[in-house]
C-alpha cells in the first residue's frame, strides 16, 4: 500500500498520547506512563498496574529493515483471520505510526474502557468487521485521522521541534498487547499482519511476560552503536489522578 497522506510524527510523550487518547474516547481511568526499564524491579514498582499494553519507539536501521522484509516474506497474505483475537491496522498514513500504535492499544482494550458515543467507537470500532478487507479497515483509520486532524491538534505539541510531515523519519512506534486468545502480539502497521509471539507467560499483565522482554531486547541487541539509545517505551495502565 502506498501512503495516501503524510503527517507530522508524534513525539514519544505520555502527555501527548494521553491527550489524543482522551480525544478518541479512552476512559479517564487509564493513561500512559513512561517506562524506564523492563528488568529493574525498583523502576517497575513505580508503574501503576496492571499494564495493558506497551508502546515501543525504536530506530529503523538497515539491519532492522532487512529483518522486517525477510520475516514478512515468509508470511502469507493477511486477510483479518485473527480479527476475533486481535485488531490490527495496516499503516497507510506516512509518519503516522504513533497513531497506529495508539489505535492498536485502544482497539484491543476491553470494551468498557472506551466511552460510548466517542469518536473512536463511531468512526472505527463500531464499523470493524471480520468481513472487511485490510484495505477497507485501513480506509476507516484514514477517515478517523481526518476527523481528529492529527497535525493541527497534536503534531506540534512535543517538547522538541517537530519535523515537517514530508520528512522521512527513522524512528518507529509499535505496540505489544495480549489478545483475546491469551497470546502476546506485536502490532506494527508496517508489517504484513499481527505478529503472534505465542501464548502469554503472564497471568497478570504483560510486563511479566518473558516474551515481551525478549523481543524488545532483540531489537536493542540488533541495532547499531549509533542508535543504541534511540529507544523509548510507554505503558498503558491505571491513571494516577
Topology:
Layout: E1 5-6, H1 14-24, E2 30-35, H2 41-44, E3 53-59, H3 62-73, E4 93-94, H4 97-106, H5 119-123, H6 134-148, H7 150-155, E5 171-178, E6 183-187, E7 195-199, H8 210-221, E8 232-238
Parallel strand pairs: 1-4
Antiparallel strand pairs: 2-8, 3-5, 3-8, 5-6, 6-7
Characterization of this structure:
By secondary structure, the protein is an alpha+beta fold. It has one domain (14-238): Ubiquitin C-terminal Hydrolase UCH-l3, CATH 3.40.532.10. It has eight helices and eight strands. The chain has helices at residues 14-24, 41-44, 62-73, 97-106, 119-123, 134-148, 150-155, 210-221, and strands spanning 5-6, 30-35, 53-59, 93-94, 171-178, 183-187, 195-199, 232-238. The strands form two sheets. A six-stranded antiparallel sheet has the order 2-8-3-5-6-7, with helices on both faces. The model has no long low-confidence stretch (mean pLDDT 90). GO terms for molecular function: cysteine-type deubiquitinase activity. It comes from Debaryomyces hansenii (strain ATCC 36239 / CBS 767 / BCRC 21394 / JCM 1990 / NBRC 0083 / IGC 2968). The record marks 188 as: Important for enzyme activity. Its EC number is 3.4.19.12.
Amino acid at each position: 500500500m502506498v501512503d495516501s497522506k503524510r503527517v507530522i510524527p508524534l513525539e514519544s510523550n505520555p502527555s501527548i498520547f494521553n491527550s489524543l487518547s482522551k480525544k478518541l474516547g479512552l476512559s479517564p481511568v487509564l493513561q500512559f506512563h513512561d517506562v524506564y526499564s523492563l528488568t529493574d524491579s525498583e523502576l517497575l514498582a513505580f508503574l501503576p498496574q496492571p499494564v495493558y499494553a506497551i508502546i515501543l519507539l525504536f530506530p529503523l536501521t538497515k539491519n532492522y529493515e532487512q529483518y522486517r522484509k525477510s520475516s514478512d516474506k515468509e508470511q502469507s497474505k493477511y486477510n483479518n483471520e485473527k480479527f476475533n483475537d486481535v485488531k490490527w491496522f495496516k499503516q497507510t498514513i506516512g509518519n503516522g505510526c504513533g497513531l497506529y500504535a495508539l489505535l492498536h492499544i485502544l482497539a484491543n482494550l476491553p470494551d468498557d474502557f472506551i466511552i460510548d458515543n466517542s469518536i473512536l467507537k463511531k468512526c472505527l470500532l463500531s464499523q470493524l468487521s471480520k468481513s472487511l478487507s485490510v484495505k477497507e479497515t485501513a480506509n476507516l483509520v484514514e477517515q478517523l485521522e481526518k476527523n481528529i486532524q492529527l497535525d493541527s491538534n497534536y503534531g506540534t505539541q512535543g517538547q522538541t521541534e517537530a519535523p515537517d510531515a514530508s520528512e522521512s523519519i527513522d524512528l518507529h512506534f509499535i505496540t505489544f498487547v495480549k489478545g483475546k486468545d491469551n497470546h502476546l502480539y506485536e502490532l506494527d502497521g508496517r508489517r504484513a499482519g499481527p505478529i503472534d509471539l505465542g501464548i502469554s507467560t503472564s497471568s497478570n499483565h504483560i510486563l511479566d511476560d518473558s516474551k515481551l522482554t525478549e523481543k524488545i531486547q532483540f531489537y536493542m541487541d540488533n541495532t547499531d552503536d549509533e542508535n543504541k539509545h534511540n529507544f523509548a517505551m510507554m505503558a498503558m495502565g491505571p491513571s494516577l489522578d
